[in-house]
Amino acid sequence: MSSVFSLRPGKRRWRLTGLLAAALVTAAVVPTALHLRPAGAAEYPGPGVVSGNTAVHDPSMVKGPDGTYLLAATAPGLALRTSTDRTRWTYTGLAFPNGSATWTDEYTGTSNGNLWAPDLSYRNGTFYLYYAASSFGKNKSAIFLATSTTGKPGSWTNQGKVYSTTTSDDHNAIDPNLVVDRSGKWWLSLGSFWTGIKMIELNPSTGKRISSSSTVHSLAARPGNTALEGPAIIYHAGYYYLFTSWDACCKGTSSTYKITVGRSKTITGPYKDRPGKLLTDGGGTQILGTHGTIVGPGGQSLIQDGDGDVLVYHYYDGADNGTAKLGINRLSWDSSEWPVVS
Fold first, then answer.
1. Tally of CB atoms within 10 A around 126
2. What is the extent of the structural domain holding 94?
3. pTM, two decimal places
4. Which of 18, 148, 169, 283 meets the CB 3.0–4.6 Å disulfide criterion with 165?
5. pLDDT tens readout for residues 319-331
6. Any idea which residues carry the catalytic annotation?
7. DSSP string covering 87-134
8. Domains of the chain: total
């Protein structure tokens, strides 16, 4: 299968034109800087063993009612894969086959544009799929919602636009992540570059924004429009944990992507990193970065599975020409209830 490299706004991701989300890169420099890594931290572990069709960007995973795992990833039409054991993966097709997602054309600028950073969940007998449409360097962007009772390719029903931004906004509408708080309220975190990570409240009955005039909360930012994106939030031990990706994605073995985290007692913040710096002031504690031939891990999502919390991400394989691959690791928690990749 062929693939074409191009960049996306802020996210510097891949555009994928084949059914496989694979891309080969010729750059050969593997960065070794691990800044923001906690002092004295042990070497990062390698990804857990996965097999089958695992060439992905921006993976999001959910466990269906029959125990089968469904994974969605960035691609024209959004690529879907399944696994019965969270290890062996099979490509099954596109959520929106044959350029059928025409409602996104306004934002992608093409009739078969790349759709970005899907977010999968399963609630009330329905699979929810949030995803973004945009083009490189633009914050004219939008997040859409689709639903399905089966999760199979071609079964997804367009539920319409959830949130959008224009070139006059100070943020963009990509990288959605649905999270339900302890009181049952639905929230969507989003954003990349510009003024950082935002959050809006959703109506649980529709999965859409609760009101067009409702507050847009600011969760995290880095000074000077520095790379910050891919929010993913989980609840653990009395805190909401906000994971984000920093720095340069999608440059093969020259990528400098890394995963950082902060936490808050309330879902809308304020989030602080381990030393106590506000994430809105550039704070963030790194939990995973380049190590050995595992380059630029990021684009993360999280799943709280029956055997514990699991971090899902992509990385570039320095031993395989910089091919983008699926990474899956367990998360453990230290004595201060901070996450550790294990």
1. 14
2. 51-341
3. 0.89
4. 169
5. 999 999 999 999 9
6. 58, 229
7. SEEEEEEESSGGG--GGGHHHHSSTT-EEEEEEEEEETTEEEEEEEE-
8. 1
